[in-house]
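User:
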Amino acid sequence: MKNINYVINGVLAIAVCILFVMQFSNRKEGQSAGRAFPVGEEISGRLPIAYVNLDSLLMNYNYYKDLNEVLMRKEENYRARIGEKANKLRNEVADFQRKIDNNAFLTRERAEQEQQRLMKQQEELQNEEAKYTQELMNEQQKLIEQLRDSMVAQLNIYNQDKGFQVIFSNNMGDNIIIADDVYDITQEVVEHLNKNYSPSK
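Assistant: Predicted structure:
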């Protein structure tokens, strides 16, 4: 479970990257008819496209930070619960081994019963850990959907004035290999998202 935070961040970043590509490449024809640059502008002028550096956007988007904090707190709570039970079981196993070494059990059957009890506890602990991991993944999926909905709504509002035909994501080299900085709207988008985000108390 200690690597779950890396998985969460990776999945969130990939999900938002896919969102950008899907949202702005599948726009309705009526929306794609407008131009973001004047008729007669030279080909060498700015095109009606832009890109967002997704890593930078997520790092600076307050809503993403808050969602990530929620997940981290849940993960820490799960890890603390499992860790406490695992320590207790470890102590019981060590105690059992000491009793075996010192012939402290009156009968072989009693030793086998204790061994079976400890094995059952270990199995229950593994099942509980799997359950917590699944709950965390379900919560992560729910938060990804909230993040996606928030970004789609805000990017549509943001793009009403801008009139971009396509907005790409430039995440760890995906989709864009080389692009002029003039097409980078990351900071504008971050400012727009944070300006329109009101954290719940």
